[in-house]
Design a protein that fits this description.
This protein is α/β, with parallel strands linked by helices and 281 residues long. The protein folds into two domains: 178 residues, 3-Layer(aba) Sandwich (D-Maltodextrin-Binding Protein, domain 2), CATH 3.40.190; 96 residues, D-Maltodextrin-Binding Protein, domain 2 (3-Layer(aba) Sandwich). It contains eleven helices and ten strands. The protein has a five-stranded mixed β-sheet, with helices on both faces. A five-stranded mixed β-sheet has the order 7-6-8-5-9, sandwiched between helices.
Length: 281
């Protein structure tokens, strides 16, 4: 039995992993795959890939590209979600800010440096024509940290996946004053180099199993109701999310795509320069 550890955010995107684990699909292939939740997001997962705490991670594209460029000994093996991620731009319920343009000099809550909430704040600032070198950040660790920071006034706005935060908008914790979609496919699967070398066959088997699950995921009976209940979402929000979310079902990631994403990230001042794309895949 081969032991492998996989990590991801505890959000609706990763429910297909839960199903394959629940149905013991990996055990049937002599793989003991264990799941670990990472509420802190991509920055936390990149750190855990580096330390060997996890072997496989479902991470934001921009975060892992930046971290591999900075020495993370991992590779992207495929895209997981090929549609963009819609980031909600949130302020506290009592905030004086009314629109995105009011936020130019505001303090941004981020889960950690190199995370999606950090990098997408830079993308949003670039889109608004602001000076990205003067942005002010406050590290808050995770979504709960973002709630606390906006409620106490320790930070002014916080960017997080808009469907995950929708219940917080509905209950009056946050006000969403805009959206910022990623200009690239949002989630990829990354694996530590050492694991790819030692357990190439097993990693391929894991990918085959999850990709097979993704093929029929949207047609599972009552999947909208199951997801709404599990993730405490309104049914109509989950239905909207299912409509716009497209999973990749096993097509390999191309050097061309990585090059295009890197070029955009350079333009957005997220990374300094493009590297050879073979370094990432």
């Amino acid at each position: 039995m081969t032991d492998l550890k996989v990590g991801g955010v505890p959000e609706h995107f990763n429910y297909p992993w839960y199903l394959t684990l629940k149905n013991k699909k990996y055990t049937q292939e002599n793989i003991n795959l264990r799941w670990q939740d990472f509420p802190g997001g991509t920055g936390e997962m990149c750190k855990s890939l580096r330390s060997g705490e996890v072997d496989i991670a479902i991470v934001l594209t921009e975060g892992i590209i930046k971290d591999i460029a900075e020495g993370n000994p991992s590779k992207i093996v495929q895209t997981f979600v090929k549609s963009p991620l819609i980031w909600g731009i949130h302020v506290g319920a009592k905030s004086k800010f009314k629109s995105i343009k009011d936020l130019e000099h505001a303090v941004i809550a981020i889960s950690r440096y190199g995370s999606g909430s950090h990098l997408m704040a830079i993308v949003n600032a670039f889109n608004q024509g602001w000076n990205v070198t003067t942005l002010k950040f406050k590290v808050v660790d995770n979504l709960q940290g973002g709630i606390d920071a906006l409620t106490t006034g320790a930070a002014d706005y916080f960017m997080w996946e808009r469907f995950t935060t929708k219940p917080l908008v509905d209950n009056g914790t946050f006000r969403r004053i805009g959206n910022c979609p990623t200009p690239w496919p949002c989630f990829v699967i990354a694996v530590r180099n050492e694991v790819l070398e030692k357990h190439h066959k097993e990693v391929k088997k894991v990918l085959d199993i999850i990709n097979h699950q993704l093929k029929d995921f949207k047609s599972i009976k009552n999947i909208d109701k199951i997801l709404a209940k599990r993730y405490e979402q309104k049914l109509e929000d989950i239905q909207k999310w299912l409509k716009i979310t497209k999973w990749n079902e096993g097509k390999p990631i191309t050097k061309n795509l990585i090059t295009r994403i890197q070029n955009k990230m350079v333009r957005f001042n997220v990374i300094e320069k493009s590297e050879n794309s073979s370094k990432f895949i």
